Amino acid sequence: MKVSEEPVTAFLRGSYRLLILALLEHSRMHGYQILKLVERITGHKPKISTFYSILNEMERRGLLSSYIEEDKRIYGLTEKGRHSLNEFRSRVGDGAVRIIDIILKPRPL
Question: Alpha helix (H) ranges present in the chain?
């Protein structure tokens, strides 16, 4: 987290990669479609430059693949991306749900 970054912004930025993997799990989409879905799901609009940097970084790391169709870059999940998403789900999934539950419904531990 950047020193000056608000916790909400840091949380959202940190979740974009996993959210992108999950959104591409069942269908390919162009970048703007992914951006609009992320915005609709989170209620926050990512900075376009940051968002496309994340897509490019994920493709460089082999988590996504892309091709151009009708002047749009279409993104899809690679096997490495699918494995990464499934690994998160199996290793962290329940813990992530508990963390979100605690954040959203404060109560004594």
Answer: 7-23, 31-42, 48-60, 79-91, 93-104
Task: Return d(Cα 56, Cα 34) in angstroms, integer.
Answer: 13
The DSSP output letter for 63 is S
In sign, the C-alpha dihedral spanning 52, 58, 61, 62 is negative
Tell me the pLDDT tens digit for each residue of 81-94. Answer: 999 999 999 988 78
Domain assignment of residue 69, given as a range: 7-104
How many domains are there within the chain?
A: 1
Assess if residue 1 is contained within a domain: no
Which strands sit side by side in the sheet containing 29-30, from one edge to the other? 29-30, 72-77, 64-69
Query: Binning pLDDT at 50, 70 and 90, where does residue 109 land?
Result: low
- The residue assigned the tokens 């840091």 is 10
**107 SS3 class:** coil
Min mean pLDDT across 44-48, 60-64, 72-76, 90-94 is at 90-94
pLDDT of the residue at 72:
94
